[in-house]
């Protein structure tokens, strides 16, 4: 072995960093190494499409911990290294440069890689995804010469990036293949509200958009639609989801497919190997125990903490309520629970006032809330989701009534 550690954590994002932090917090005294494929120490990723891209936060402000923190806790940071294979029998991983690193226990926290749009021109200069600091830095470097951008994908990444570009005064066309933005994660009330907000800020939102190719001679110059129209652009940002980075684990025999399958303690089917965060396919009680992947900081952090406690001998099962957030313009969206599979919605407040909540029900039970500039609803509504309560919908809709009164 080139190196040997008691715990090896593959992935230096939120989950990997939190796993190392939680192990030390829970008095783990063995050796810990974090392997990251970027040159930077662990940092927050959500600001990449918002505050960091916008220049409101420096990189130092989005670092999860300063360098001294890791040194003081004897956490070895093996950066700019990519794990390409796992040998579960030898208890080792191999990196792209040929190094072999042994482990007692392995925590896989690699997240995923951005999906490329499957069309000609997707590799032209000026076509970007938003997953790393380097991605955001490349986009920032092109802002001065930018007049028009095309954003492909109406999920949170695409909407957040469009909001920043619009704030910079750029002409933005947002292309969404489905019939509304946020279609996979939210109800129609929220989708239509955000479409209207972006249009009010000058973003041209096109729904049901069919893309043929991305055009340019070395550098992007436009996006050709299926009907032949070419939308001029000096920048294209693609936000159409991620592919979970689990190939080495699957190749080593781990169960999975869309992610690596884990149990309620985040154990994979391979001995002494855990998986957490965006890449972990787990049965979730807030999704009727369906196997899902959750792409959120909350999920990564909570699973990391659970694994640390499991390694230290505590018998726990993952049951954390999912939550998410998104900042666009002066709108703060806070979500608790999972709205997938809802059969009814309750609109609480008036979207025209730019402060309201959408409450999602399934068989009368509250399963999720989307709260726009409505932090009190988010805080109080959390317990409705956690306790799986079934309040009177008329009372839920009464914005004058505090949600905590329905508990």
Automatic annotation (TrEMBL):
Q: Which GO terms describe its molecular function?
A: oxidoreductase activity, acting on NAD(P)H
User: Which Pfam family, any one, appears in the UniProt record?
Assistant: Reductase_C
The reply on keyword Transmembrane helix is no
Q: Which residues form the Reductase C-terminal domain?
A: 323-406
This protein's UniProt keywords: FAD, Flavoprotein, Oxidoreductase
Residue ranges occupied by any FAD/NAD(P)-binding domain in the UniProt entry:
5-304
- Fetch the Gene3D superfamilies from UniProt: 3.30.390.30, FAD/NAD(P)-binding domain
- InterPro entries annotated for this entry? FAD-oxidoreductase/Apoptosis, FAD/NAD-bd_sf, FAD/NAD-binding_dom, FAD/NAD-linked_Rdtase_dimer_sf, Reductase_C
Q: State if Oxidoreductase is listed as a keyword.
A: yes
GO CC term (a single one): cytoplasm
What span is annotated as the signal peptide, if there is one? none
Q: Which cofactor does it need?
A: FAD
What's the protein name?
FAD-dependent oxidoreductase
Which lineage do the record's taxonomy fields give for this organism? Bacteria, Pseudomonadati, Pseudomonadota, Alphaproteobacteria, Sphingomonadales
């Amino acid at each position: 072995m080139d190196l040997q550690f008691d715990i090896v954590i593959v992935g230096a994002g939120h989950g990997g960093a939190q796993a190392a932090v939680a192990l030390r917090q829970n008095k783990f005294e063995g050796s810990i190494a974090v392997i990251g494929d970027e040159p930077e120490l662990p940092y927050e990723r959500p600001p990449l499409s918002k505050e960091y891209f916008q220049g409101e936060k420096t990189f130092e402000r989005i670092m999860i911990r300063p360098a001294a923190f890791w040194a003081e806790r004897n956490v070895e940071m093996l950066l700019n290294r990519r794990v390409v294979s796992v040998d579960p029998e030898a208890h080792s991983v191999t990196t792209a440069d040929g190094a072999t690193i042994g482990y007692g226990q392995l925590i896989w926290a690699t997240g995923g890689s951005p999906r490329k749009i499957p069309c000609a021109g997707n590799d032209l200069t000026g076509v970007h995804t938003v997953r790393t600091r380097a991605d955001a830095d490349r986009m920032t470097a092109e802002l001065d010469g930018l007049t028009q951008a095309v954003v492909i994908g109406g999920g949170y990444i695409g909407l957040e990036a469009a909001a920043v570009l619009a704030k910079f005064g750029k002409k933005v066309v947002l292309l969404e293949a489905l019939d509304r933005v946020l279609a996979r994660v939210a109800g129609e009330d929220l989708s239509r509200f955000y479409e209207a907000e972006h249009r009010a800020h000058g973003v041209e939102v096109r729904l049901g958009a069919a893309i043929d190719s991305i055009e340019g001679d070395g550098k992007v110059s436009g996006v050709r639609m299926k009907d032949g129209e070419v939308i001029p652009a000096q920048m294209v940002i693609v936000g159409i989801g991620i592919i979970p980075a689990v190939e080495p684990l699957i190749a080593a025999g781990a169960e999975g497919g869309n992610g690596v399958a884990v149990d309620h303690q985040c154990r994979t089917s391979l001995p002494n190997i855990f998986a957490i965060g965006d890449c972990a396919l787990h049965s979730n009680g807030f999704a009727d125990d369906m196997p899902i992947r959750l792409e959120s900081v909350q999920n990564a952090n909570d699973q990391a903490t659970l694994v640390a406690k499991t390694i230290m001998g505590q018998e726990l099962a993952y049951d954390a309520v999912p939550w998410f957030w998104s900042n666009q313009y002066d709108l703060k969206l806070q979500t608790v629970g999972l709205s997938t599979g809802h059969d009814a919605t309750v609109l609480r407040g008036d979207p025209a006032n730019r402060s309201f909540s959408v409450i999602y029900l399934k068989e009368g039970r509250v399963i999720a809330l989307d709260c726009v500039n409505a932090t009190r609803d988010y805080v109080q509504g959390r317990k409705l989701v956690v306790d799986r309560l079934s309040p009177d919908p008329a009372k839920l809709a009464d914005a004058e009534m505090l949600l905590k009164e329905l508990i």
